[in-house]
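Dear support,

I submitted the protein below through the web form. The confirmation email said the job was done, but the results page showed an empty box. After a refresh the structure appeared. I'm attaching both so you can tell me whether what I see now is the final result or a partial one.
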Amino acid sequence: MTSTSLIPYSGGDAVQRAEAWKGLPPDERRRRAVAACMAHDAVALWHLTEVWTTLHGRAGALVSPHTRKNYCHGVETLVAAWSQENLLRPARDAAALWLRQLEAAGLKPATVQIRLAAARAVRGAALGRRHRRRPLRRGARREGPDAGVGEACPLQRG
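What the results page shows now:
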């Protein structure tokens, strides 16, 4: 099964892609998400994560292109690191080990945090569960919708 067979949409902005995903019956969405996890399909998992963050994320459709790019890279990193791990039911210490590997690689704390946020979003998208949301802080920055989104993600090439 190719990654594009898991994704019910192409093109458009993030809200249009989310609408296409939500147009599928819940059992079909679950089947496609599980298939992407089982295949370790980084492209499909990125698309699912993008839809998830658009629908359930704090910023919704106003997620900045920079944040989308970082989440995309986080999804790619997680799938590569967990190539032998069950993405739906990882081993008890898999996340802690991955965190320590990111730290040992010399990544800055902010980079580690964005990778962890991307991993939480992948898990939320795959399981169809919302993680605890923090209330929007006063003065939090929001950016315009989808400026340059399609080109930002290295998984969307070719």
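Response: this is the final, complete result; the empty box was a page-load delay. Residues 22 and 29 are 8 Å apart (CA to CA).
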